[in-house]
Amino acid sequence: MDKHRHLSKYILSHPEATGKVVDYNPAADKLYTFDFTATNTELSPDDVADTAKFSAWVDAKLAGENYKYGIGGYMEHRTLYARSALFDTAEEPRRLHLGVDIWAKAGTPVYAPFAGTVHSFNDNNNFGDYGPTIILEHDLNGLTLYSLYGHLNRESLAGLYPGKPIALNQQIGAFGEANENGSWPPHLHFQLMFDMEGKAGDYPGVGRYSEMEKLMMNIPDPALVLGFSYG
């Protein structure tokens, strides 16, 4: 069976085994959908490059109508990665966002949506990078799935070791401040992969737009797991 279909079927047929990534009540919590493509003319390149200004803009959007979370970004062709040389390559700059970002206050709890184990973790401490990152490994009726959590606080990495058991809905960390999360406004980068391709503690969250079709084969839409609509 195709891995994408296997994942969808598992989630639909095992609701008791699929949990949350953040605390979210669809009946009460409002979501703001962020757009970081070229159509967003509210943010200038200078604003995005200045973490304090960027954070203030995000905070204002969420506070405007009392949104609990901002969300969006799966396979979004973003301009904002020009803020860091980390995403520049000789052939083609990386601008395609591969996961979903959930924007909220620093300290927001993060949970494991499936039972599993710690695959790897690392503090990817570069400007524009993930900062503290945790990757979990899950066995979903024979399907191996990895889930990545980036931009956490450093305390989230305490006590971890590869193979550590993680329970369904166990809190695994919290959103980090800009001074520890790779210099971003506080948010969670949540991403799924079928194959880690030999990597540990890190997996690209931004790819080349020209490779979208290939990347989507390994990186399913996190909306399958998150359980709330956006876009």
UniProtKB/TrEMBL annotation:
Keyword DNA-binding appears in the UniProt entry: no
Keyword Cytoplasm among UniProt keywords: no
Matches recorded under CDD domains: M23_peptidase
Residues in M23ase beta-sheet core domain copies: 96-194
GO molecular function: metalloendopeptidase activity
Keywords annotated in UniProt: Signal
SUPFAM superfamilies noted in UniProt: Duplicated hybrid motif
InterPro entries: Cell_wall_metabolism_enzyme, Dup_hybrid_motif, M23ase_b-sheet_dom
Pfam families the record matches: Peptidase_M23 (PF01551)
Database matches in PANTHER family: L-ALA--D-GLU ENDOPEPTIDASE, PEPTIDASE-RELATED
This protein's name: Peptidoglycan DD-metalloendopeptidase family protein
Biological source species: Mucilaginibacter mali
